[in-house]
Amino acid sequence: MREARGWKQEELGDRTGYSSTHVSAVETGRKMPTLRFSRSADLAFGIADTRDTLEQQHREIRHGSLLEGFPQYVECETRAAEIRVYEVGVIPGLLQTPEYAREIANSGVKRGAITPEQAEERVALIAERQAALVRTPPPLISVVLDESCIRRPMGEPAVLEAQLDRVIECAEQPNTMLQVAPFAMGARRPLSLPLYILTMADRSLMSYAESAQRGHLERDNRFVLPMLTAYHQLQAAAPSQAESVAMISRLRKDTPR
Asked: Measured between alpha carbons, how far is 62 from 35 in angstroms, rounded to an integer?
């Protein structure tokens, strides 16, 4: 694109705020393009509002270790008006503390599933997702946690203790609703696997779910609406936010120190 416009590397550097040496290093693959560089180049080339941007390519490269569909889900999550989450086994990323997120990422390194660099990228991605929630107006966030999420040890006891504190703090936010689905719900629980549902500003819906090997972003209402109905049924059957927070607080007090 630079050559098609007849620009020298110096000119692209001037337009993006980077040196020609940096531009050269990105073009030859000696340096990975950062998100800031990619966005600056999109603006310089006038393609920031198109579907095929350098920012999108940057995310695809950076998130190559993530399951299929998840990078696309994250991109939509940053623009969603409503976010609904049901998680099993772990606290969802939007609520994770950095220490909790790092424990999960490091466990993947120890198993040989990801590299240390990919682990750091995953922790950084969680921070980016959480930062994207601080916007005006903020998205409405509904979170239902399986009881296993708040009981599963993660690293040192202090890590889980701080994480439970964070969950309680999130429940206090005016745009967040939090519930815990206890084991005692048994067969009354309509969902058994993690599920994420987004409502976009235009009221369109999409859902994201994962198997062991891949993730799937669904945009067809024929498949999303039954999942949304099941999520509402889950919310109706689960204890209230006040009851759920009380449950977490009791567990928090019993956490070994």
From this structure: 10
Q: Which pairs count as long-range contacts for 38-44, CB under 8 Å and 24+ apart, including other chains?
A: 40/15, 40/16, 41/12, 41/16, 43/16, 44/12, 44/15, 44/16
pTM tops 0.85, yes or no: no
pLDDT, tens only, 14-57? 999 999 999 998 898 887 787 788 889 999 999 988 878 888 77
Domain boundaries defined on the chain? 3-62, 70-95+138-254
Instruction: Pick 70-95+138-254's CATH classification: 3.90.550.10, 3.30.160.70, 3.30.870.10, 3.10.50.40.
Output: 3.30.870.10
- The two tokens of residue 25 are 């290093």
Peptide bond into 226 cis (omega under 30): no
Burial class (CB in 10 A: 0-12, 13-18, 19+), 28: exposed
The whole-angstrom separation of Cα 94 and Cα 257 is: 25
Q: How does 172-181 read in b/e, with b if 16+ C-beta sit within 10 Å?
A: eeeebbbbbb
Widest Cα–Cα separation across the chain: 67
For helices 20-27 and 9-16, give the axis angle rounded to 10 degrees. Answer: 110
Class for domain 3-62, per CATH? mainly alpha
Tell me which residue has tokens 């090997």. 213
- Report yes or no: 247 and 239 within 8 Å, Cβ to Cβ: yes
pLDDT in tens, 89-125: 999 999 999 999 999 999 999 999 888 888 888 898 9
Q: CA separation (Å) from 57 to 42, 63, 99, 205?
A: 11, 10, 29, 24
Structure tokens at 49: 């509002």
**Residue 222: both structure tokens together:** 């024929």
